[in-house]
Amino acid sequence: MSLYQQHLPTLERARQACRERHCWSPYPEMPAKYPSAEQAQGKGLQMFEQHLGSAQGRRRFALDQPGQIGWLGEEVSPYTQAPLHIDYPQADIDTLFEAAGQAVPSWARASIEDRLGVLMQVLDAIYRDHLFEMTHAVMHTAGQSYNMAYAGSGVNALDRGIEALVYAEQAMRAVTPTARWERSFGPSSIQLEKTYRLVPRGVAVCFTCASFPTWNAWPSMMASLATGNAVIVKPHPATVLPMAISVRVFRQVLAQAGFDPNLVTMALDSKAEPIGKQLVQHPKTAIVDFTGSVQFGQWVEKNAYPALAYTETAGSNTVVLESADDLDAALRSLATTLCMFSAQMCTSPQNIYVPRQGVRTPDGVVSFEEVGQRLAGHVAHLCSEPKKAAMILATIQSPQTLALLAQLHEEGQRRGRVLLKPAAYSHPQFPQARTSTPLMLQLSTAERDLYAGERFGPVSFVIACDSADDALQQATGDVREFGGLTAFLYSTEEDFIARAEQAYASAGAQLTTNLTGAMPLNFAAAYSDYHVTGLNPAGNASLTQLAFVSSRFCIAQSRRPARSAT
Amino acid sequence: MSLYQQHLPTLERARQACRERHCWSPYPEMPAKYPSAEQAQGKGLQMFEQHLGSAQGRRRFALDQPGQIGWLGEEVSPYTQAPLHIDYPQADIDTLFEAAGQAVPSWARASIEDRLGVLMQVLDAIYRDHLFEMTHAVMHTAGQSYNMAYAGSGVNALDRGIEALVYAEQAMRAVTPTARWERSFGPSSIQLEKTYRLVPRGVAVCFTCASFPTWNAWPSMMASLATGNAVIVKPHPATVLPMAISVRVFRQVLAQAGFDPNLVTMALDSKAEPIGKQLVQHPKTAIVDFTGSVQFGQWVEKNAYPALAYTETAGSNTVVLESADDLDAALRSLATTLCMFSAQMCTSPQNIYVPRQGVRTPDGVVSFEEVGQRLAGHVAHLCSEPKKAAMILATIQSPQTLALLAQLHEEGQRRGRVLLKPAAYSHPQFPQARTSTPLMLQLSTAERDLYAGERFGPVSFVIACDSADDALQQATGDVREFGGLTAFLYSTEEDFIARAEQAYASAGAQLTTNLTGAMPLNFAAAYSDYHVTGLNPAGNASLTQLAFVSSRFCIAQSRRPARSAT
Questions:
Q1: B423 touching A, CB under 8 A?
Q2: Band of residue A565 on the pLDDT scale cut at 50, 70, 90
Q3: B236, part of any domain
């Protein structure tokens, strides 16, 4: 049975989910539900620990890819603030492109079924053999909590990978491989056999970010590979291990299936000597997938040509609080989402717009000041118990984020009101963890420069507006100008909700309205929730739809007189 | 019955044709087969003549679009070399963008069915009421023959329009409009209603070229409009009338259906004061469709960001002559295609590569020199009779082309051998027509600079190569370096054909092998033949596939707790 046939039931089920966009996943959402969970988790931890070096001796991560010119590694665990002591192969870039380019033709000649089968097998291998190893690797580089690393960077990211394969298949299957064409020209009849070949663009470069590497990388890699391209992965130097493990699995499965493992390689750099621009503008770069800062993302979009660019950066995710049936339920949900992974997600809310006149509730109007204080109270409550804080806030990936918090706190004191002061909390399991509770500032729109654009990390702004409509206008204005992926609204007015849905749709942020309860507000489900819209500076890579895959290959045809006809 | 329902049978048939890529069209291919042909043709001529002014008084083409600041018109008929004396509204660009932008929201809110119905109605109105008017308009601007203007710029272009609608519908239907999503988070269950809105990019600018305006414009306009965008058409100042007629029909049908006619407007410039760059870089430009020169096309691709760019330019279309069962049949077909509309098509062949050792035939090897001479003989034969020449060669659109022919003739004499000298032929119906028979030069590869890149007009080069494989390598090298849309091969060796198919597929030219007989070698059929591949500098707009349409809209979602659930 071919790999494609083995994985076809899952693919078929995924196709249905993509069509209907209901809830589905082939994977258990919680670590405890993984088959033989305890044993698997123990083995995963062990595998992770075997990667680690020590102060006595660095450990080399073997990747067996061509063009090696040295070893590089500068990862520091946000949980221990100690180096991981791992070195990864540093490769000569031209050699990687050369090897990737050479690997493409035979991969492109393989059938759609063969490519999809191998790629499903890669996802399956990560799930079966590397999921908990990956979980720890993500924790000790990106700094996520164990549960988030398992779900958001594990099974949810695998789901995004399958989803990309579904759309890649749909785009490729829209092109018939052959046709017979007959027409008369005057008295004579012409019969042609036509062949339509799917030709990949060439070599894709996939940039991954420090705080959330796999969720964007796996679908991007799947989209490029399924359509016949090769991929060079360029991880953020702070978060290499999750991608190094991924690249090694891709290479192993490709080789086992008889393909050239150089279809997937890794190009590494250091913070001091970045190679990003060089990779984007390399003459052999055909596709760039980028996740990272708005600034570099916009540079990529502008300078990638003739390569295609798919970007996911960040933005000012906004909240509009107009009215609520249960204000405290709304504020609790908002508080949880403001704390989730210390707001280091591209979907974390930041700018909370509230009418100066307050928020209507069944018990009367709650004043602007009280809304801010109650929200801060809910956040403070979540942070008050270290065990709970650890699960929700996890750690701060980069020391720069702490510096930003300090600076914003200082400015906020002068220009507004500090609703909540950031402070380290003590992680019960990792006493050396780099942590911080959120900073919350109350401001007027006169201080817009403070909150205009993404402020990466656990910081949010409660902003006084002239009215609910002004709140909506300010919020969607932020999205248009600085980018925005998600948006959150609480309102009991159907008219206002309808206006807000139109306004956010045209600004291009995905809107969640009146959600309370156990689901994190910014949870984005594969097969159901679209990601970036492409309508504002937050990027253009909507995971996953046809536009994400259909330009990654071209169609070359050949035609000749039908052989039976001559 | 809605417009969509009225046109649904045609759309359904077109969907099938796109899936299977067989031969189909709802339109008669020859003018004589048009319903009540004689009467319709007479009326079309009359309608065309009513547009014309005279030396005594220019005629104004009413378009009733906003922002008019003056009148412009500098068209000269290639058939009479006299001005058409037509003035068109010159509009203030910002006003056009403003009006287009205002027209988008209600158009975007219309259902997919409503938009498709109106757009099918536009194509139908052109077919029923304007086809022969368009035929004459194309003749007296682009300079095509009557039959080509009817087919290539008439019904075939309408077919490309329908085809674009089929793919736009396919891409849009891939997004379900709503979904219900249920999942448990811990002990609680979350039920969400999700709405997925298709959001257009905004305002598209469609550049049309002097020699073949409608064939690219109509599908581009359909692709943008079907997905909810507005279109500003920027015709080449030498060929305005076909697009002015088109724009007026779009506006009329849109208004009749209750939509804002400013969804389609025209921005006009003069050769002396071009506005192309201003349009491409206008802050409100979201999409650019460009047909024209390689040089400006590459500028567009490089500078359109943040707008999307779809380009179709030109290139060095190549021929490889390796061996032939019936060499004269092959050479006759090649000769016809070299003459067709005086090789002013983006699909016309230019560089003919022949092994220096000659071409194998069942009657023995025909020497390189003899191949060139015989081919020139066939071309000369086609040009020898004015009536036949008029049908095939038609006219030369631009005086610049005659200057290029003179220059290349002069250089060719010095650096190679002139196989055929260009000369005006006398058009039987239009004695003042701007005409030229083709220039054919025999060269060695040492003179590559002479034929490297497109030489627009009736010029071809017969180039001596070291071997058949060298011929293939030279030819595909041209395509990679200078762009190429079509390619033509004659070979009796299946191995060589297979190699050529791979080589041209990877270079990105659409290959036609061993075709002889009545069909023009470069005939491209809607629903069956793909156009530009996107793999070389000839552009990226493959008419039509999913990549041509799927980025013209974005997906914005909103979600909220399911109403029954709370």
A1: no
A2: very low
A3: yes
What is the C-alpha to C-alpha distance for residues A138 and A44, in angstroms, rounded to an integer?
Answer: 12
Predicted confidence at residue B552, as pLDDT, reads 98
On the question of pLDDT at A491 being above 90, the answer is: yes
Q: Kind and range of the H or E element at B310?
A: strand B308-312
CB hemisphere CA count around A440 (13 angstroms): 24
Burial class (CB in 10 A: 0-12, 13-18, 19+), A36: exposed
Parallel, antiparallel or unpaired: strands B188-200 and A417-420: unpaired
Report pLDDT for A401.
Answer: 98
Q: How far is A510 from chain B (nearest CA, A)?
A: 5
Cβ-based neighbour number of residue A5 at 10 Å:
10
Examine residue B534 and state whether it is found in any structural domain, yes or no.
no
Residue B150 sits in a domain whose CATH number is 3.40.605.10
Are B215 and B157 within 8 A, CB to CB?
Answer: yes
Mean pLDDT of all residues in B400-413: 98
Instruction: List the structure tokens of A97.
Output: 């492109």
CB contacts < 8 A, A to B, total: 211
Same domain, A326 and A302: no
Q: Tell whether B559 lies on the interface with A, counting CB pairs under 8 A.
A: yes
Mutation for testing the B interface, residue in A163, A557, A559, A563 having most B CBs under 10 Å: A557
Could you tell me the CATH number of the domain that includes residue A379?
A: 3.40.309.10
Asked whether the beta carbons of residue B513 and residue A306 sit closer than 8 angstroms, the reply is no
Residues B241 and B349 in one domain: no
Check residue B3 and give its pLDDT: 98
* Alpha-carbon span A89 to A507, nearest angstrom: 43
In B200-346, alpha helices (H): 213-226, 241-256, 276-280, 294-303, 327-339
- Tokens matching residue B148: 């080509």
Q: What is the pLDDT of residue A113?
A: 98
pLDDT at site B140: 98
- Judgement on whether residues B30 and B168 belong to the same structural domain of the protein: yes
The residue whose two tokens read 């009225």 is B6
The whole-angstrom separation of Cα A482 and Cα A315 is 6
Residue A546: closest CA among chain B residues belongs to which residue?
Answer: B550
Number of domain units in chain B: 2
- Which structural domain range is residue A295 located in? 25-313+541-556
Q: Distances in Å between the alpha carbon of A173 and those of A112, A117, A482, B174, B230?
A: 9, 15, 37, 13, 30
Provide the β-strand partners of residue B309. Answer: B288
Q: Are residues A438 and A453 in the same domain?
A: yes
Q: For residue B20, tell me if it sits in a domain.
A: yes
| B38 DSSP assignment | H
Query: How many CB atoms are located within 10 Å of the residue A274 CB?
Result: 14
Considering the domain architecture, whether residues B547 and B430 belong to the same structural domain is answered as no
Q: What is the pLDDT of residue A59?
A: 98
Per-residue pLDDT of A122-153, as tens digits, reads 999 999 999 999 999 999 999 999 999 999 99
What whole-number distance in Å separates Cα of residue A364 and Cα of residue A402?
39
Question: Span A370-376, mean pLDDT?
Answer: 98
Residue B522 lies in a domain: no
This model's pTM is above 0.90: yes
Indicate if B296 and B255 belong to the same structural domain.
yes
CA distances from B398 to A298, B125, B460 (A): 41, 31, 18
Measure the CA–CA gap between B558 and B538, rounded to whole angstroms.
Answer: 40
